[in-house]
Amino acid sequence: MASKNKRLLWLQSGGCGGCTLSLLNTDAPSLFTTLADIGIELVWHPSFAEQSLDEAMQLLQRLADGREALDMLCLEGSVMTGAAGRFHLLPDGQSMSTLIEQLARRAGQVIAVGTCAAYGGISAAGDNLTGAVGLDYTGNHPGGLLGGNFHAAGGLPVVNISGCPTHPGWVLETLALLAADSLHASDLDPLGRPRFYADKLVHHGCDKNEFYEFKASATAPGQMGCLMEYVGCKGTQAHADCNSRGWNGEGSCLTGGYPCINCTAPDFADPGHGFFSTPQVAGFPVGLPTDMPKAWFVALSTLSKSATPARVRQNATRDRLTVPPSLPKKGKA
Amino acid sequence: MSRRILGPFNRVEGDLNITLDFADGKVSAARVTAPLFRGFERILLGREPLDALAIVPRICGICSVSQSVAAAHALSQLYGITPPANGQRVLNLIHAVENIADHLSHFYLFFMPDFARADYQSHAWHGETLARFQAQRGSAVAPMLEARAILMRFMGSLAGHWPHTLCLQPGGVTKVVSAAERVRLQQWLRSFRRFLEQRTFGQPLEAIAALDSQAALEHYRLETPAADFAHFLHLAAQLQLHQLGRSYDHFIAAAAYAGPDGPWSPAGLWQQGVSQPLPLEQISEDNHRSWLAGDGPSAPLHTDTVPLPDKAEGYSWSKAPRVAGLAAETGALARGLLRGEPLLSEMVASAGGNVLSRVVARLTEVARIVPLMEHWLAALQLEQPFQQPCPASPQHSSAVGLTEAARGMLGHWVTLDAGRISRYQIIAPTTWNFSPRDSKELPGPLEKALEGVDASDPQALQVQHIVRSFDPCQVCTTH
After folding, report:
1. Would you tell me which residues 156-195 of chain B have a C-beta closer than 8 angstroms to some C-beta of chain A?
2. Residue B263 near chain A (CB below 8 Å)
3. Rounded-to-integer distance, Cα B374 and Cα B89, Å
4. In chain A, what residues touch B385 (CB-CB under 8 Å)?
5. Is B386 close to A90, i.e. CB distance below 8 A?
6. A66: distance to nearest CA of chain B, Å?
7. Where mainly located (chain A) (predicted)?
8. Are residues A177 and A216 in the same domain?
9. Is the confidence at residue A292, as pLDDT, over 90?
10. Do A42 and B134 touch (CB under 8 A)?
11. Most buried among A41, A129, A176, B464, using CB within 10 Å?
12. Do A251 and B155 count as a contact with CB atoms less than 8 A apart?
């Protein structure tokens, strides 16, 4: 059996390590048991491997040279290309970006874990002095370290498990599908994200959907109402299944009381407005659902606002349920 | 003299390389390099103040909530608001979950696997250590991860998710706890307590918190040999870990876990058995040996971060924070000393801060915090508010937000100009512990702790133990 296991190398560069820490939250079963069950051997991981120092460096070099086979490469964090790679150096003075590129060109499958590794993410925000890029994207555009039209030895482009952080299920299910050779190019969306979570919207299954339907809006984080109109929520545009698969058991940004900031999108860290406010044009929020004609949205929201039940309107700006739903009248179904 | 460059260190959060100079077979000088720079202090510039709440947690995946707490403290001051008691209690709960999860991850996943290495196979304790703590495969790993995941359900319930929550706000928290949710939270905490009492400590948490001397600790070890903590104490005694990794014995801490009667753990500076209030205005950053513009000590509120990758004198992306010119150590041991914990005070009086005392401080803190969490949960006044409204504009233009991450003192020095962030300087725990030399060539705490160490074996295992005894977080260090 052991020989059939896929050999996975996990590297970190310009990131926070949060996708690894989120991965550790997986609980049924726990991480190392799951990896073994899905047929993956973790050849090295910066947080979990025994090998350190020279023995780690020698292992990385053998994998980069092709002296040892590498089935899967996961990168977490952006690639730091600025100043000739000086923003992330290995102990031998080699830039980390060089090593990442060598390994990506050896690996059978290349996986960007998190928005940083996929597109540059938050490390590329602001003036991006460090030249942070994704593996095969620079922000929304093909490019990145690998040039923008990369295909790994196994034939797939870089698989972009975007998210800041990633849900452990997104990562483990992608790895399981890859290990079984069951993830195909058609299973990725136009930004390279696995469709099984990226073809859903955060809006789907949102706790606040009744408030959305009636445009009964919160005016601050922590209120019960919909956070889209005033509080910056991008759940109607954000590609992820956060409200249909729980985080840490039962959570999501919305159940936590704060807006979705669309962290699976390449440029989420530079929204062009405050994260907790929604820019408005002529009294309507910008950034409506991407596939809904604006005139219809305006018409529907005007209509639904006029039909908002008092219960929904009153609860919207409270921090907890104040007016409960009424019971059906006696004698009626 | 010979020189050796060690790296990449793993099982530290982030990246770390160390250059060692040797004389007579022992380390004569160590230079600690943080080799990765992202530039969060620049990413924050020009943004609205509240945007810090979305940016700073992403500095670090393991200290994410601590970064949020420091920002929320600074923003509370800038907006002139104070969270209500419920908001403070929920913040404490969320922060405590991160901190104790970090302590456990450090012990089980990052620190102990080094003792399972084949280098130690001639020792009588090694077989058991290998079975229990081998990296990824040890029998202690899966049960710890399962217990940790149950504890982390607090984050799903209270914070939406972990890491990178936005629920911590200047006026409190965005989540209101219901009576039914409190029942669930209490059940998860009971479950986590059971794991600690059965596996980690082998005794009630209160018995661990009551260990008040080295003699009591030794008695515990002999009485409870099967517990993971006792197993560590046993191999620590065999390997004389109390003689390894002593630094300056200057300790610094911020206040941790605010409450109506003051913080659970006080801020301060500890030297030679004497605590003094934290001299905040005497904290400086020194960029002499950093690949950053600037040289001598500079006040964080008046410092800008300008990377200079080619700076000839530089050898790290980390700044060198100093307090009154001293390089100071921060972490659970510093907190324990400032609280006057008898066991830790006695350990430091006899052998200083070292590999053993740092680990004992961390694990005994876990035993103290879980009962505190039970208290905070029970004390929530469910019908009362959890958050105060935040005014539309900030009332002040500069603030310092301080807190304690698992691995020590974290500070955010924030300046606003015309309602936007014009300066945001961060000093993280491992910036203190793993700082490079300063403009007086004073070594940082780890650099000091490595002097005199035997690092002749291929793996430089003593160096690895010392490095990991600080529970470093290098992504925070340079941010």
Report:
1. 156-167, 169, 172-176, 178
2. no
3. 11
4. 319
5. no
6. 20
7. other
8. no
9. no
10. no
11. B464
12. yes
Residue of A nearest to B133 (CA): A50
- Assess if residue A332 is contained within a domain: no
Contact flag B166-A220 (C-beta cutoff 8 Å):
no
CATH number where A292 lies? 4.10.480.10
- Tokens representing A143? 């490019």
Give the nearest chain A residue to B138 (CA atoms).
Answer: A32
Q: Which domain holds residue A102?
A: 2-197
Residue B414's SS3 state is: strand
Q: b/e string for B134-161 if b means 16 or more Cβ within 10 A? A: bbbebebbbbbbbbbbbbbbbbbbbbbb
Query: Is residue B58 less than 8 Å (CB to CB) from chain A?
Result: yes
Using a CB-CB distance cutoff of 8 angstroms, which residues of chain A are in contact with residue B155?
A: 247-248, 251
Residues A179 and A69 placed together within one structural domain of the fold: yes
Q: Which residues of A touch B407 (CB under 8 A)?
A: none
Question: What is the pTM (predicted TM-score) of this model?
Answer: 0.98
Residue A146 lies in a domain: yes
Residues A303 and A204 occupy one common structural domain: yes
pLDDT band, residue A3 (cuts 50/70/90): low
Tell me whether residues B166 and A55 touch, CB distance under 8 A. no
Give yes or no: residues A286 and A305 share one domain.
yes
Q: Which of A153, A180, A197 is the last residue of a domain?
A: A197
Confidence category of residue A1, pLDDT binned at 50, 70, 90 = very low
Bridge partners (DSSP) listed for residue A79: A133
Q: The CATH number of the domain where A10 resides is what?
A: 3.40.50.700
Rounded to the nearest angstrom, the minimum Cα separation between A110 and chain B is 21
From the CA of B465, how many Å to the nearest CA of chain A?
12
Q: pLDDT class for A290, splitting at 50, 70, 90?
A: confident
Amino acid at A120: G
A26 and A146 both lie in a single domain: yes
The Cα A212–Cα A26 span in angstroms is: 31
CB proximity list for B148: less than 8 A, separation 6 or greater: A24, A25, B101, B104, B105
Whether residue A331 lies inside any domain: the answer is no
Between β-strands A6-12 and A40-44, what pairing exists: parallel, antiparallel or unpaired? parallel
Shared domain for A120 and A26, answered yes or no, is yes
B35 and chain A in contact, CB less than 8 A: yes
Contacting residues of A for B37, CB less than 8 Å apart: 80, 87-88, 130
| CA–CA separation, B196 and B189 (whole Å) | 11
- List the one residue out of B24, B8, B27, B67 whose CA is nearest residue B451: B27
- Considering the domain architecture, whether residues A98 and A230 belong to the same structural domain is answered as no
* Residues in chain B where the model's pLDDT stays below 70: none
Is A169 inside any structural domain?
yes
Q: Per-residue DSSP letters for A50-64? A: S--HHHHHHHHHHHH
Nearest CA in chain A to B134: A50
In B, minimum Cα distance to A42 occurs at B136
CA distance B387 to chain A (A): 8
pLDDT of residue A80: 98
| A116 and A19 within one domain | yes
List of domains in chain B: 2-478 (1.10.645.10)
Final residue of a structural domain among A150, A167, A197 = A197
Domains: count for chain A: 2
Question: Residue A305 burial by CB count (10 A; 0-12/13-18/19+): exposed, middle or buried?
Answer: middle
Q: Which amino acid appears at position A190 of this protein? A: P
